[in-house]
Amino acid sequence: MSKEKILVIEDEEDILELLEYNLRKEGYAVTCVTSGEEGLERAASGTPDLILLDLMLPGMDGLEVCRRLKSGPDARNTPIVMITAKSEESDIVSGLELGADDYVTKPFSPRVVIARVRAVLRRRSLPFDDQEAALCFEDLEIHPGRHEVLAQGEPVELTFTEFRILHLLARRPGWVFSRYSIVDAVRGDDHAVSDRSVDVQIVGLRKKLGPCGAHIETVRGVGYRFRD
After folding, report:
1. Is the pLDDT reported for residue 131 higher than 70?
2. CATH number, domain containing residue 165
3. Alpha-carbon distance 174 to 223, whole Å?
């Protein structure tokens, strides 16, 4: 069985060495780079299974790296876990808007990073049931097996997390999901719940769906539901 490949983009040598040691110890194949530019090159040529990306990089910062990765053809579907300082909430929100899958704040425990990496890779490797029926509404179609969404007949490119949230809500129209239940279903109950991060994902989802985004309703003080 081949090792899952992790690309680490981090400019602080001590943190880079810590991550490399612990990831290799867990059996991952690890490639380390210290700049965003080199990270983009390695992502294009090495097809990693996951990218650990520091947001505070010299030169091209992590947000720009994330934007290019998610907008390019090579690593668009590669999960990204951001590494950021606790004071950088605005950057965390921006990264989630750009399509990052998760984040870890500094200072961190290597065990936390490993847990996040495992959780993201596990979620990515769990396919939707190919036999599960498509969810079809008047102007919106959701195909779990193909991971495909059509809004007014046009394909919509969603991140993995956005698709999971949409599918979760659409399977039970009218049912109200709290932010906690959305995080539990999409990211796992070991994830630190952030109201802001869930709200960011919903905003991005609505924007991509265009007029069909009106299907997702906000229930003030509770969470979200798919319009019945």
Report:
1. no
2. 1.10.10.10
3. 12
| The residue to which tokens 């090579």 are assigned | 74
Q: Which of 50-54, 125-129, 153-157 has the highest mean pLDDT?
A: 50-54
In a domain, 130, yes or no: no
Count other Cβ atoms within 10 Å, centred on residue 41: 13
Question: What tokens appear for 123 in the block?
Answer: 């979620």
Instruction: Report the SS3 class of residue 136.
Output: strand
Q: Model pTM greater than 0.70?
A: no
Q: How far is CA 213 from CA 14, 44, 60, 99, in A?
A: 44, 33, 33, 18
Domain that holds residue 108: 5-125
The span from the CA of 147 to the CA of 42, in Å, is 27
**149 C-beta neighbours (distance < 10 Å), count:** 24
Rounded to 5 degrees, what are φ and ψ at 208?
-70, -35
Nearest to 94 by CA among 25, 4, 196, 183: 196
Q: Alpha-carbon distance 185 to 14, whole Å?
A: 35
In the sheet that holds 177-178, the strands lie side by side as: 177-178, 223-226, 216-219
